[in-house]
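Good morning,

Both structures are done.
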Amino acid sequence: MPRLWPVLSLLCGWVPSLLLAADAAPKTIDVGKSPESVCRGFGGKLYVTMINGDEPGDGTIVSVDGETVEVFAKGFNSPKGLVFVAQQLITADETTLWKVDRQGHVTKLAAAQDFPQPIEFLNDVTVGKDGESVYVSEMSNPQPMFDPSGERKLWGLDSPEAQKLPNKGCVYKVTLAGQISVAIPAGNPALRFPNGVYAGGTKEKERLFAGDFFAGEIISYQNGKYQSLASGLRGIDGLTVTKDRFYASSWTEGKVWSVDRKTREVKVLHEGLQTAADFFFDAKHKQLIIPDMVAGKLIFLPLELP
């Protein structure tokens, strides 16, 4: 989550299928100050967006090869969501989408003035099913969600402050040629502050999933219809959808959840992180790779997958 904000263990018991590998202690790697999002990219290496400090232009993307962490690209303000598509990295950086080539050269894919509505806070990014586009969540200004009486504390869902929150968040589709369209419109109370976003379905019949950071709900959107698929997951940052499960992380609660798509049962996979940010679902290596932003670490959380 962003530097703009004032504040910037496995569970006991065994749960069948798709959860943590038995008795596996998560591996961690120190990557630097304020890691936000991670994915695999060039040469199978991990790439991580680093918000770093508060100075404009001090944000970076680092590569992680084994235990070696190196700056790969720089000049960002506050880079967040990161994906790898068509042999380039795409990252959301406040009001700009950037693309980064194999040499670490950075060029603009879309700037604030290119969007049909004012942009406040571009956040998560996911690859479209066509392999030629990305979806990016426009979260809108996050500060009104937070109760200043506590660190990373959200207002209560039934509080007067919650009722006053705006409905400006939306999701955009951006092609790799820079064409922009609205994918999930603003104004619906079902999705006021979208963060994690995921494109499911097929190329011909795409279905979008988004996590509402404030309400803690996973919402699906297709053909103009909103459906709540899971709740109680406040502070949703990362979101991945598989055939059987949702995986979600909480920036405010430091948790990682698994949700059974059939039964809607929610399980805590891991807790005790300071800020569980935008993770990478690494199916090949049967793990989630989770940036703990405040701690400056990557957490490698093993999974039992079929």
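Second structure follows.
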Amino acid sequence: MAARKSSPRKIRLLKKTLQSTPVPAWIVLRTKRTVRSNPKRRAWRSTDVEVG
């Protein structure tokens, strides 16, 4: 990550990065495949993140 960002902005970007992870395999197994995908998944290039 580039150096010319404020710390609060880096924290917001990190939160968006963690939200964009797939659903863990053990949760898919535990829910008998009713939960398969993360609806908050976001492509880093095609979707803009409004964090300032």
